[in-house]
Design goal:
With 118 residues, the protein is mostly beta strands. The chain is built from no helices and 10 strands. It has a single domain, classed as Galactose-binding domain-like (Jelly Rolls), CATH 2.60.120. The strands form 2 sheets. An 8-stranded antiparallel beta sheet has the order 2-7-4-5-6-3-9-10, with no helix packed on it. A two-stranded antiparallel sheet has the order 1-8. Strand 5 and strand 6 form a beta hairpin. It is globular. It starts with 6 loop residues before the first strand and ends with a strand.
Length: 118
């Protein structure tokens, strides 16, 4: 049995705080799954999804919808707009940014993007 190692923010996320992934090459991102040992449903409506090119300097908003098939799982269906140096849907960096301050910390045990489980 594999026991996931969870990373919990020490502080409560505020507006502008974020977490995400950086890819080695531009990657088509359609679905981003976040898993926790705690409920993630309280994140609904409190996040935005952004993508960027390799430099990570200019971030482009990505349209997203969130589903919560299990209380501890958030599945984001993502569609990123074209950006300088990136065709539509591709990103070198994806971040989930808080647009509203939370009341408690967030714990991330794993993520899945394009068949890669982290």
């Amino acid at each position: 049995m594999i026991v996931p190692i969870c990373q919990m923010a020490i502080t409560v996320p505020q507006v502008g705080d974020s977490f995400g992934l950086q890819f080695v090459k531009a990657t088509l991102v359609k679905k981003f799954t976040v898993v926790s040992s705690k409920s993630l449903a309280h994140l609904d409506g409190k996040i935005s999804v952004l993508g960027s090119d390799h430099s990570g300097e200019d971030w482009t908003p990505c349209y997203h919808t969130a589903r919560f098939p299990h209380a501890h799982t958030m599945v984001l269906e993502i569609s990123c707009s074209p950006a300088p140096n990136l065709p539509k849907g591709l990103a070198h960096n994806i971040k989930i940014q808080f647009v509203q301050a939370l009341e408690k910390s967030v714990e991330v045990c794993g993520m899945e993007v394009g068949g890669m489980n982290l």
